[in-house]
Amino acid sequence: MKVLLPRSLDTYDQVQTQFRSRDPIGYEGSEWNLYEFLFSSPTCLLDPFGLCPEPRTEKECCDAAKQNGDDDDDAGGVICCDGRKVSCVWLSGGTDPDDPDAPSDPIGIGIIDSCIKEHEDVHHVHVPDCPSKIPHLKRPNTKPGIGDDRAECDAYKKEEKCLLRNIRKCRGNPQCVRDVRDEIELVRKRRAKHCKRAFELEENRRRFLGLSRHTFFGI
Ligand SMILES: [Zn+2]
Fold this sequence. Notes:
The protein is mainly α. 55% of the residues lie in helices and 6% in strands. The structure holds zinc ion.
């Protein structure tokens, strides 16, 4: 017997069929379709049957972005993944074999990585909301009007504080202390450059606004 379903039930039936017909063990080959299909359906938004996919973990998101070849020369970055802003540490200094000054102590590298993570978290407020469609992986830009320098200035301030706070975890291990101190020096330079530029830009804007208000009232 053939039954005509209303549009919404029809969609639900397709979801059920697609879900049931996929190999229960492997997601290979069908993962993309499955996620795309479920997330774009109203059934998924309400999820009454618990069929919706769990968003990927932060690590899975970052691994996928790295596989895409996203900025792996960088120390870190923010990506949009499954509708969330995710902070990734792309490359701790210790993994660059060509750099003789690269940090090499595992504890030092751990401290540096965790502080890069804190830096990237600061960027979350400076980037627009991520598209919510699953799956989605992209690097967002800084919100227009905020300015990259302000975002970087704030982020490097946080990173520097984090390094200063955590250097005690080296427990006097000379290589670890050296690694973290080198990083602090680098971060300070970058912080100073970006904060100076951000301040100048904001000062100019203030002056411009002050002047235009003055002109406007004709005083
Ligand atoms: Zn940054």
